[in-house]
Design goal:
- Keywords: Repressor, Ribonucleoprotein, Ribosomal protein, RNA-binding, rRNA-binding, Translation regulation, tRNA-binding.
- InterPro entries: Ribosom_uL1_bac-type, Ribosomal_uL1, Ribosomal_uL1-like, Ribosomal_uL1/biogenesis, Ribosomal_uL1_3-a/b-sand, Ribosomal_uL1_CS.
- Binds directly to 23S rRNA. The L1 stalk is quite mobile in the ribosome, and is involved in E site tRNA release. Protein L1 is also a translational repressor protein, it controls the translation of the L11 operon by binding to its mRNA.
- The chain is of the alpha/beta class.
- It has two domains: about 130 residues, Ribulose 1,5 Bisphosphate Carboxylase/Oxygenase (2-Layer Sandwich), CATH 3.30.190.20; about 80 residues, Ribosomal protein L1/L10, domain II (Rossmann fold), CATH 3.40.50.790.
- Helix content is about 30%, strand content about 20%.
- The chain is built from eight helices and nine strands.
- The strands form three sheets. A four-stranded antiparallel sheet has the order 7-1-8-9. It has a three-stranded parallel sheet with strand order 4-3-5, with helices on both faces. The protein has a two-stranded antiparallel ribbon with strand order 2-6.
- Helix 3 links the parallel strand 3 and strand 4.
- Helix 3 runs parallel beside helix 7.
Length: about 230
Amino acid sequence: MAKQTKKQKIRAALDGEKLYTVTEALATLREHKSKFDETVEVAMNLGVDPRHADQMVRGMVSLPSGTGKDVKVAVFARGDNAEKALAAGADKVGAEDLMEDMQNGNLNYDRVIATPDMMGVVGRLGKVLGPKGLMPNPKLGTVTPNVEQAVKDAKAGQVEFRVEKLGIIHSGLGKLSFSDDALIANFKALTDAVVKAKPSGAKGKYVRKVTLTSSMGPGLKVDLAEVEGA
């Protein structure tokens, strides 16, 4: 018989049907933590079919406790806006030179931001940035004249959420070393934002299942009573 992995042993020892409060789930994840600082993640199963435009769920939310991750930001801007983006902490700022760099495969960024006047340049990167979910979008605040604030928000813990084709949203909530209060604040901010983003085409129960996990930990079902509006 194949040897069980640590993750399999943990799963076998837990009641897979138990519903946890967020506090209980975090305590359980800490009991089984690994030697490195794991990322705490949430998965939300939604009653939507994102193949239909009126059932797409997507947005941005600022996590009050941050993500614990160094967010790499690229900005398309010129002149004063380029200088402001650099001063705000952008990792790379440019115009046609940045476009060519990305076309050559240099795409190691978590967020791409652009001023409106740069969209003629950015538009040529649709096939490159689109599949990675990095294409700047005015609805998400990543096409904006205020690149300084957009960079600061991205660096401070603003995350994008987007429903996958199976109706699931995945997002990191921070590190297991964060306090319970910090992780609960992030959980509330994210789940509230997803509930508020309920699309017009969603029918029946919207939030169907919520799971908390960590990088190497088990998936724990969260009581939907913990999610406001669910």
